[in-house]
Every structure is written in structure tokens, then in C-alpha cells.
Amino acid sequence: xxxxxxxxxxxxxxxxxxxxxxxxFHAVKxxxxxxxxxxxxxxxGPNGAGKTTTLEIIETLREKSGGxxxxxxxxxxxxxxxxxxxxxxxxxxxxxxxSLSLTELLELFAGLYNMPIxxxxxxxxxxxxxxxxxxxxxxxGGQKQRFSIATTLxxxxxxxxLDEPTTGLDPQARRNLWDLIREVKAMGTTVVITTxxxxxxxxxxxxxxxMEGGKVIALDTPDTLIxxxxxxxxxxxxxxxxxxxxxxxxxxxxxxxxxx
Amino acid sequence: MMAIAxxxxxxxxxxxxxxxxxxxxxxxxxxxxxxxKGGSVTLNVALxxxxxxxxxxxxxxxxxxxxxxxxxxxxVEQRTLLLKGKLDAIIDIQKVQLDSSSxxxxxxxxxxxxxxxxIIVRSMLEHLIDKSNLSAAKIISPMxxxxxxxxxxxxxxxIDFILPGQLGFSLLSTGVFGTAxxxxxxxxxxxxxxxxxxxxxxxxxxxxxxxxxxxFAMLGAAFLIALGHYAFGFTLINGLATVAEMLVLSAMGLIxxxxxxxxxxxxxxxxxxxxxxxxxxTLPQFLLSGTFFGVENFPTWLQPIxxxxxxxxxxxxxxxxxxxxASLLDLxxxxxxxxxxxxxxxxIAVKVFRxx
Lengths: 260, 356
What we know:
The complex is a heterodimer. By secondary structure, chain A is an alpha/beta fold.
């Protein structure tokens, strides 16, 4: 228990007064937060809240307009390339090199990191070992996302960033991906994830930051945020039943994840 | 960088359009032109049905291999074919009986539909008639005789002209189309963005891609040269050294043409604007740079334009190397123009190239 407390309070990402403007439009308006080592940190918010922009700045893919970002002690302004070495990035809707098999794609990424890997072992970590010769575009939605996560793990990163990894997936594939993300966390990797599904954040994230209009308007554990809301006198209009429609769907169609 | 080159190479070899443009098209052209008979002229003439066949003009006519003499047509058919240009001439020889001797009237019908060959028929026929007249007049030592001496040179066959041109065309299309499409697509599908999240540096992405295309194009070029040489007798004056020099030229050409590709991928707004843009660059060069016919065949007002295009110089240099045995050092002017194009096009490419 003591171990956990130490780990959880040591920040691995520190964002201070981060700003980003496109011309007159201020996408990110001076936000500050910390991500602790070893946790799953959720960036929540509706579309256009600035989640992806924030993520891409930390991933070194986008220039910031102001503020400081420190990733594992490395400053993003001067050590961007060192940061790239220790992070894994999954982009929203990223494509991969055309007409290559999954094995060949992993070899490509291994080459980009200059790091030899066992491609089959990597594929089996994400449950795609029987798809080694398949092309990326032949995969189902859930398989695509799991493959994307495999590419983020090649350099044994300290932090991986997942941008809306479950958008568009069916409930089984979603749950399957949650399990994978928990496995990644269990190996000691910090996970930063964006989503606009609140059930996902509640189940998966240790702490969440809620963004709206380019600002962080709340930051805490999902439990605390709920407790705070209840303490303020909030009540749901309808009494919650012991199961919801998703539970019904999963019990009817089976929990296990299928290929398509 | 090698990882990108390897991946890109694998991707290129699996992309149908790359293979078609680099190998199949040039292959088709080379095969077609390789089998075309070059050099000899065939004159299709018909003899009218009532012609006299017992005279020296007629005998001269059928014994000359340049003439293909048709007897198997009636006069209506002859006339129709002549007007269509399928026949080059109709010859009618009539015996005119005089008191003691006989003379012949040779009537020649030619057509605008085959004007050039009509002239050849006429001059050859005149020659046959002159010969007959000379022998009829019993002149044994004529005033002037023609003595031709042919200097033995290397046989310059169609393939020697066509293959370098096709090689240039292959490099041009791989360079422009391939590069433009690949970079545009990699950008659109965020493949390049994903690369940016890894430690690879930007120039290496471009260099890796370029290297893959280079290797692919060089293999293609080597294949075309080998096929041309072994199947159609393409002249390689210094053997393997010539091949090596041609490959060096190909590499230079490809670098310049990839520059065009980068420019196109930079200025194209959508995928559908790439083909027109790329065609604006490739088609004029395809037609005007001496790929199929020499630049000197174009009207004089067009020639300055022909002489501005990089492919003109590449084709020219290729032919000089392959057929005349020129070394790269002798090709200063050609290489200078190609290099100049390279400098200009990459200056533009750096300005318009976009990563995202």
C-alpha cells in the first residue's frame, strides 16, 4: 500500500499554463495538470474541447504557443527527440504504410526506434498472432486499435498516449481493449487516454481531467468527482436499475470478443 | 532510414501502378518497336489487267524487291485501293505497234493518299525505262555511271532509339507519379504524422522513401536494358561499363523527376488533382523529348521548347552513351542542363513541400 502511494504521487508529466492558438482561435487556454507515474490518466471532454491538441503537444507533434511541458524530466522545448524515445503514440484514425503485413509494419517501427523486437511475441501480446500476415486495412475496428497499441509498445515506452482508442467499437471490442490497456498499466507503463465515453473513464482511469472550451474544469479520481457531485445535492431524475442496456446486450451476445 | 526504405520498397513492389508504369508500359513499347521492321521500303503497285508483260520494263519491275506487284485485282478494286492509299501506284504498260518495230507506253497512276511513295515509284520506274531505252539504243558505254560506296557503320536499329527513350519515360513516370502519390497519401493517412512520434528525423523519412524508389527504378532500368540487349539487339557499345553509365544517368534523371513529384504532392489539394498535375509535367516531355521520334522532327518553333525539357537531355545522353560510346565526361552540356533542372525543381520543392 505504501508502495502505491509513492508511485502515484510522483509526476511523470507536468503541464504548466499550456496554451495553443490557431490565429485568433484559442484551442487551449492555459491549462495545468500532472500525470502520475504508473496511472491511467483520462482527458475527458466533448469534441472540440482541446483534448487532442493537448495530447499532440505533449507527444511533440504540435508546437505550443505558451507554457511549459516536462515529460519524465525532459523539457519539450529542448529535448523533444529524447521524449520521442520514451513515449508511444496512438493517433486518432492513424493509417499505416499501405500494402504491408502486420509483421512488416512492426519491423518498420522497430527500425524507426532502432530496436530489435520479436514481432510474433508483440502481436500475441495484443492477441493478433494469427493475423501476422494480414494487412492493416483487412482488420476489424477493434483489431486495428489493438494493432495500433502494439506499435506504441515497441520501444518499451514509459508512457503511452491513446487518442479515443475505443470510438466506434462495439461493446465487446471495447471491453477487450480496456483489458489490454489494464495489462499495459500492470507492466508499469503510464497511460494517457482521451475519450468522450464517461463509462470508459469511470471503469478505466485512475484520475481524470475534464476539459471544456480549452480549459481544465475538473481534475480528480472518478470516485471523488462523483462523490462531490452527489454531495452538492445532485440526484438522478430516474432511479438507477441494477443493470443497464449494455449489460443486457453483453449478457445476450456474450462477453467474449470476436473477430468481426 | 533503412527501415523506411525497406518498407517503402516492399510497398512499391506490391503497388500495381508502380510496376505498370516502370516496367509494363515501357516493355510494351519496346516490344512493339523491337518487332517493327525498320529500314526497307515496300512499294505496293498493281498492274492493270491488259498490260503487256513481255517487255524489259515489266521484267525489271517484278525483279526489284522494293516492288510488291499485285496482279489479282480488277480495275475497280485497284482504283479503290489506290484512292485509299493501300496501293501506292497502278502501272499500265501498253504495246504500240509501229510498222517495223514496237514501242511501249507506260502509264503511271499515283495518288495524293500515298504521295511520297508515289514519287519513289515514279523515279524507280523512270530508271527502268531509261535502262530499257539505253539498251534499245545499243549504248554500251553511257556518259555517266553512278558508283555508290557504303561505309560500314554500326547498324542503328529502331531499338537503339526507342529503348533509351522508354527508359527515360519509365524514370519520369516512376519519379513524378510514384513520388507524388506516395507522399500525398502518406500525409493524408497520417502515416508521416505517426512517424513523427518516433525518433526518426524528417530528412530521413524523405531519404528512405527516395532510396526505395531509386532501388526499384534501377532494377527496372537494368531489366529493360537487359531485355533490350538480349531480345532485340540493343547496342551496348562498351558492354557492362555502358550499362553502369546508363544507370548513373538513370539515377540522376530519377532524382530530378522525384523533385517534380515532391512539388506535385505539395501543391495538390486533393488526390484527384494529382493525375492532371503530374500529366502536365510528364505528357509534354513524353511527346516532345525525343522518346518516340527525334526532336529534329518537330517544327522549328517547337524545338526551343523541346530543348528546354530535362527528359530531352536525359534521352540524348543515354543514346550517346549506349550507341556512340560517349563517357559521362563527354556529356557535360547534357549533365549540366539536368543538374540545373534539379537545382531549380528542388528549390521549388523545398518551398511547397508540406508535412501535414
